[in-house]
Amino acid sequence: MSSSARSRKLFDRRILAGAAAGALLKLHPRQQIRKPVMFVVWVCAVLTTVAFVQALAGGGSERPGFVGAVAAWLWATVAFANFAEAVAEGRGRAQAEALRRARKDVTAKRLQSPSHGAPFELVAASAMRKSEIVFVQAGDVIPCDGEAIEGVASVDESAVTGESAPVIRESGGDRSAVTGGTRILSDWLIVRVTANPGEAFLDRMIAMVEGARRQKTPNEIALDILLAALTIVFLVAVATLLPFSDYAAFVSGQGAPLTVTVLVALLVCLIPTTIGSLLSAIGIAGMDRMARANVIATSGRAVEAAGDVDVLLLDKTGTITLGNRQATRFVPGEGVTEHELADAAQLASLADETPEGRSIVTLAKEKYGIRERKIHELKARFIPFSAHTRMSGVDLEGREIRKGAADTIEDYLDTRGGRLTPRVRATIDDIARSGGTPLVVAGGKRVYGVVHLQDIVKGGIRERFAELRRMGIKTVMITGDNPLTAAAIAAESGVDDFLAQATPENKLSLIRDYQAKGHLVAMTGDGTNDAPALAQADVAVAMNTGTQAAKEAGNMVDLDSNPTKLIEVVEIGKRMLITRGSLTTFSLANDVAKYFAVLPAAFAVTYPELGRLNIMHLATPESAILSAVIFNALIIVALIPLALRGVRYRPVGASRLLRHNLLVYGLGGLIAPFLGIKLVDLVLVGLGLV
Amino acid sequence: MRHILPALRLLLLLTLLTGLAYPLAVTGLAKLAFPRQAEGSRIERGGRVLGSDLIGQPFSDPRYFWPRPSATSPAYNAAASSGSNLGPSNAALHTAVAERIATLHASDPDNSLPIPMDLVTASASGLDPHVSPEAAFWQVARVARARGMDETRVRDLVQSQVEPRTLGLFGEPRVNVLRLNLALDELR
Amino acid sequence: MSVNGWLQIAVTLALLLALVKPLGAAMAAVLEGRGWLARWLAPLERGLYRLSGVRADEDMDWKAYTMALLAFNALGLAVVMALQMLQGLLPLNPDGLPGVSPHLAFNTATSFATNTNWQSYGGETTLGYAVQMLGLTVQNFVSAATGIAVLLALVRGFTRARAAGVGNFWVDLVRSTLYVLLPLSLLLALFLASQGVVQTFRGAAEAQVLDPGAAPEAVQHIARGPAASQVAIKQLGTNGGGFFNVNSAHPLENPTPLSNLAELLSILLISAALCYSFGRMVRDRRQGWALLAAMFVILVPLLALACVSESGNLEGKETRFGVAQSSMWATFTTAASNGSVNSMHDSYTPLGGLVPMVLMQLGEVVFGGVGSGLYGMLVFAIVAVFVAGLMVGRTPEYLGKKIEAFEMKMASLAILAPCLTVLVGTAVAVACAPGRAGVLNPGPHGFSEILYAFSSAGNNNGSAFAGLTANTPFYNLTLAVAMLVARYGVIVPVLAIAGSLARKKSVPASSGTLPTHGPLFVALLVGTVLLVGALTFAPALALGPIIEHLQLLGHS
């Protein structure tokens, strides 16, 4: 999925050409029977074609030209519906092709035993089975999905993620998952295969974007039932019109029962062809939108569920706050100047490559003009952070500088005969209460002061949460911080609730609590210890950088590994549902005008008085019926872009959204066909066709 | 079918309750509280039942006020109520109305008042005991002439027989034809 | 229509609204066995359970509930049929009426068991007092109680979470009868008797006619009977089957404007008040008011149309009622699935006759039958909420329950059953000789008669364009089938929905949830009901009342 794939235009000429061909191929009845509404249209088209042949042979009372025109437009209706589906599929297929190019047939180095240097044999990647071991090294394409069990390597995953910067994959921990089709740039890995051929991540992705294994989602099934019910109603309403019209002709003494052509034309106009023809396109387009957001859903059901989510569990780090804490302030202790503290802190951090360390150096430089010094010039010995000492620092020319958490530094001072001064203690407490992290800087028995490390809440996140609240979605921040810090950040970011000192266990039980109250919960996760929570959540987005276990447990994978993506996922889900609902409403509202067009025309001979209902003043009975049929076919084409793009979702309350969509698609659907049918009629008359 | 027996027994019990006890209770209470109404609001004169306040009777004698046309067979058959059920587009209705208009005109050729609608249309039950006040007044001249009575007296009698809307609001003003004719007979 | 006419209508509607809350609250209480009345009659209730051997504490799942309901209704049907056919052998038959033909007996039994009360029979000329009391009056009670029971089961579907059961049919049936229908009927019956509705076992009265020259016979036979008790429940229980042939147009069934007002209010009373009870039971009164509002929004314009169209048309109307009370009745009786009449709908103007027809074709959900109207409306609410839910981007939910494929399937069935019955029934009738033979009026009006008959039977209403000769084997059988399909084709899916909803967990509302109590939802619900009805029946209506109207316009 290159960036060109993402920015693909709605209609690409190549896709349109393919779709046009596909539309004709799909005319086969076996293709049609899956879509009940369109199948009815297909049958109607066949019936009118037969009637046309009869009319040509001199049978029937109607002009062959009229019957032929109706037949032609019914075929066009079916073709347009097929075209809509084919366009959507074509867009998916184009994406799949891009992916498939990544899956060149490569050779795998199958290891006899899982250790570096063990002998290997060359086999085709497609022959690799689950739990077999392969060896990959710089320049190799990883043959299948798997988990690194030994080694560390940088990998180019752009074929899958579109992201050109290489990523590190290593055994153990949360960065052990490798994806087939990606390329090793440096070093080597020993990988245990986790997917059989055809089941790998890339395969799933291809299948999904192609829509080949698309299963109907629950809402789609429910909607299908409604559409089928409506189709039955109209089928019966139109079929009974035959005896009704016969009786009408009998009592009025003029006219004849309605012809097949007229009945069939009325039926096709009434049944919900608009939504029936666009339904699958909408579904495919929804998956496609997900894919373009670089999220791979394992099923359409997951996409739909995303629209229903009403609780979002968001990791603090990376989602609500910028990746890491940053130094924002130097607060010196007694008898120390700010400049002295900044200088000491910078010295202690020069070799510290963590973002926190970098931020101290930067702050000292920006605020106090302390130039970054070259490490080797100082002849200093740097003490890196270790789990054991829980401090880092520097020794230079007999001078020690250490930085660390308050309790660690207190212990350190003990050993050097110093202690935390009252002012420093007060500062530490202040910073902790405000949600920041105090980092104490000391040297020997001297306390320099405190560096205020702060979580920086992302810009615009507060507005985003307000938006979510209006959508009816509750946000919950998940953090390992203590409750005090968590509360402060929660307040600052505007999140609805938080879970402090989160562990996999209490995360899981939080999800279960919400679900027991009837909520649908979405979360993101990457680590193996997230897997249980991911499996429990209704919508679980695993980071692509995450472990295989996390990816297996989730029902979506975010290739960008961007935790904020969850919000976008919810919007895409909603958009798909809204598009379906709006087009259904539009489709049904259309019928009113069609009755006004067809009924007076159909009974022009039996009951000429019904002509008063011809409020559109359509030229002739034939032109009225033909105009309705043509409008019905053209509206499908007109709505294809909307079906593919989706109805815009606006994060406002349900009532406002409904009012808006009812106005546009309900009222609009009521009025539009009156204008449309009249217009078609005028064109038909203008062209002298009727 | 474990429900059959309970259903049968419950049906039986509810039949006793709602099909027997309830109507008998209503009959008993109605007999106590509203004995005349419960028996059909009969009009009795000297032991003879002359009709019911609520059921119209046929009249064709010009000396009597005529009721509305009745679609029962024969007219005002109180054993088999019925309306005409003729629709507004039915020629039979138009013919019937035209005939009634002709009959009314013939009965009183000099009457220039518009003929009230209810005098030419059949009632729903075929037993309507009432006509509109306008319909009664329309007939005053004919009845007075046939009886050799003063028109004003007859008109006053009709006026005294007009029942207003209930509570001044519900239903329509009306005249009970049987009551009016009985009063007419008693007038001399 | 006169100012007075509009005033009568306004006052009647105001009275109805005023009664909704007190009665609704009382019903919500007694149906759950609370309140002084329920306490007072509790020994009787327990006695009924003990004697009939039903287990009142059993919580039935929807299938058991359905089976109990069907068993009870089937037995009721059988009993009424048997009573009619054996009429000649029964006591309480002072006028010596003979046994009824099997097809008529089947039609009438079906008609009363399904709460339709279509009258193929002729009232005073066909059925004796024993059949009227033991058969018809009893079914008037229990068929109405059945409707309330189904509603209660559906309500439990909404209020319960993760529950297997939807209640106990016997308890719902007995409580509805004992605490709601019986006390109200007793009150109404006595009031009607005070107005002149007959209540006697003495057989026909005889009167000397005043003008013997006007009649072939000097004696007028006035049919009588225990009418007040039957009329009360036929109005309250949305049954509508008259004691006399012309139903509440008969002066002994509906003698005065006051009796008319009482009967008129009774038609809508329980159905309207149940909306309030519903709100109470789902613990959100606004939900009940919203449904009631939707019903009013559909009722009022149609009522106005009927009144305006009927203005000046007195054929088939009683003098004491006039246009206002007659048109109001025609509208109320078809809004509710009552079907009693106080004027002859067949003689209405085309548009005046269109109104009752449309109200029935909307599925009898505008007030509708006792219980059945509200559960029908809830089915439409489910469909409305489904489409609307999609439009706001969420799996639709109603009253905290997610509406999914199963609910849609059942809701579709419940809406399809009456629609298809009406259309197919009418089609069969106009296509065959015995069907065409029944028609009285020529032209499109004849078509309207048949369409009306199946609209009525196919929605369990029971009123008629009475010119149609329906007491023939063809109509008795086809209409009986229509009544059965319309009644149980809705009840069974509704109970299935109840069962499915009860099993679901309850979803808490949020600002993303579509509110179902505001004007927006009312508009949506009204739109759904009207659109489904209009789209289904527009062609049929165009060939009946609409073309008749246009033709009359052309003539004048």
Describe this structure in a few short sentences:
The complex is a heterotrimer of chains A (690), B (188) and C (556). Chain B is mainly alpha-helical and 188 residues long.
Structure description:
The complex is a heterotrimer of chains A (690), B (188) and C (556). With 690 residues, chain A is an alpha+beta fold. In chain A, the strands form 3 sheets. In chain A, strands 1, 2, 3, 4, 5, 6 and 7 form a 7-stranded antiparallel beta sheet that branches. In chain A, strands 8-20-19-18-9-16-17 form a 7-stranded mixed beta sheet, sandwiched between helices. Chain A has a 6-stranded antiparallel beta sheet with strand order 10-15-14-13-12-11, with helices on both faces. Mean pLDDT of chain A is 84; it is low at 1-8. The mean pLDDT of chain B is 94. In chain B, α4 runs antiparallel to α5 (151-161) and α5 (151-161) packs across α6 (177-186). Chain B has a 3-stranded antiparallel beta sheet with strand order 3-5-4. In chain B, strands 1-2 form a two-stranded antiparallel ribbon. Chain C has 556 residues and is mainly alpha-helical. Chain C has one domain. In chain C, the strands form 3 sheets. Chain C has a two-stranded antiparallel sheet with strand order 1-2. Chain C is globular, with a radius of gyration of 23 Å. Chains B and C meet through α1, β2, β3 and α6 of B and α1, α2, α3, α5 and α6 of C.
Principal-axis shape of chain C equals globular
Unreliable stretches of chain B (pLDDT < 50, length at least 5) are none
Helix fraction of chain C, binned, reads: 55-70%
Q: How many separate domains of chain B? A: 2
What percentage of the residues of chain B does DSSP assign to strands (E)? 5-15%
Q: How many domain modules of chain C? A: 1
Helix fraction bin of chain B? 40-55%
How would a textbook summarize the main sheet of chain C? 2 strands, antiparallel
Structural class of chain C: mainly alpha
Number of H- or I-type helical stretches of chain C: 17
**What oligomeric state is this?**
heterotrimer
* Count of distinct strands of chain B: 5
Q: Roughly how many Å is the radius of gyration of chain C?
A: 23 Å
Low-confidence stretches of chain C: none
Strand count of chain C: 6
Order of adjacent strands in the largest pleated sheet of chain B? 3-5-4
Termini separation of chain C comes to 20 Å
Largest interface: B-C, 95 and 121 residues
> What is the tally of helical segments of chain B?
6
| Nearest-integer average pLDDT of chain B | 94
